[in-house]
Amino acid sequence: MSRTTRLLTLLQALRGKKRPVTAAVLAAQLEVSERTLYRDIAELTALGAPIFGEAGVGYVLRSGLFLPPLMLNAEETEAIVLGLRYVDQRGDDVLSRAAANALAKIADVLDPAAQEALRNPTLLPGPPGFGYPENRVPLNVFREAIRNQAKLHIDYADASQTQSQRLIWPLALGFLNEVRVIVAWCELRGAYRTFRTDRVATADLQGERYSGRRSDWLRAWRKLMEQNEAGPFTPDKK
């Protein structure tokens, strides 16, 4: 392993740790001596890497350092490309453009070996299906509500075309093969519900944030869905 590669590998190893990790553990991971590891830490710190810690206690990489995807190997490159092409097929126009831009940025900084995996991947997404039903409400409305933790009033029709009005706490958008859904807490039902976006006739932001943190609500939903035999994205029928 070259010195430059070793330094980048060390940064990547630190980046994946949320708690301080000792020099002994890092040295073993990089297959170098602890003396070499200490020198590498000192050099990276001198170059501006926000590494904090001390010998005998451990080191942690704080936020503020962006690592370009220079260290991606062939498998990692193909995994990212597969995901971005899946998004391009199944996302809306906003996500498709974002996926294309992200792929172009990655291509600019990949080393020659990884470039081959980008040009000729061994992994391909399956066919996107027969297209999505048309939405009357742009997905950006849902995205804005999710990001701002904003309550959303919707007019909704279920599978039997029964109309209802809901005040929901939007948590996430789900992109399935044939439909798109919004995961939310429904005030009418007092429970988590999943709504097909193409069945939402209107959606109005209420200018009011829902309580708690979205991440906590979403974590509780995931835990509940682990016990739900119907699956996590079954649209609401009540």
List the helices and strands and how they pair.
Elements: H1 3-15, H2 23-30, H3 34-46, E1 51-54, E2 58-61, H4 74-90, H5 93-109, H6 112-119, H7 139-148, E3 150-157, E4 163-175, E5 180-186, E6 191-196, E7 200-209, H8 214-225
Antiparallel strand pairs: 1-2, 3-4, 3-7, 4-5, 5-6
What does this structure look like?
- This protein is of the alpha+beta class.
- It has three domains: about 5-60, Arc Repressor Mutant, subunit A (Orthogonal Bundle); about 70-120; about 140-225, SH3 type barrels.
- About 40% of the residues lie in helices and about 20% in strands.
- The protein has helices spanning about 5-15, 25-30, 35-45, 75-90, 95-110, 110-120, 140-150, 215-225, and strands at about 50-55, 60, 150-155, 165-175, 180-185, 190-195, 200-210.
- The strands form two sheets. The chain has a five-stranded antiparallel beta sheet with strand order 6-5-4-3-7.
- A hairpin with a 4-residue loop joins strand 5 and strand 6 (about 190-195).
- Helix 4 (about 75-90) runs parallel beside helix 6.
- The chain is elongated.
- The mean pLDDT is about 85.
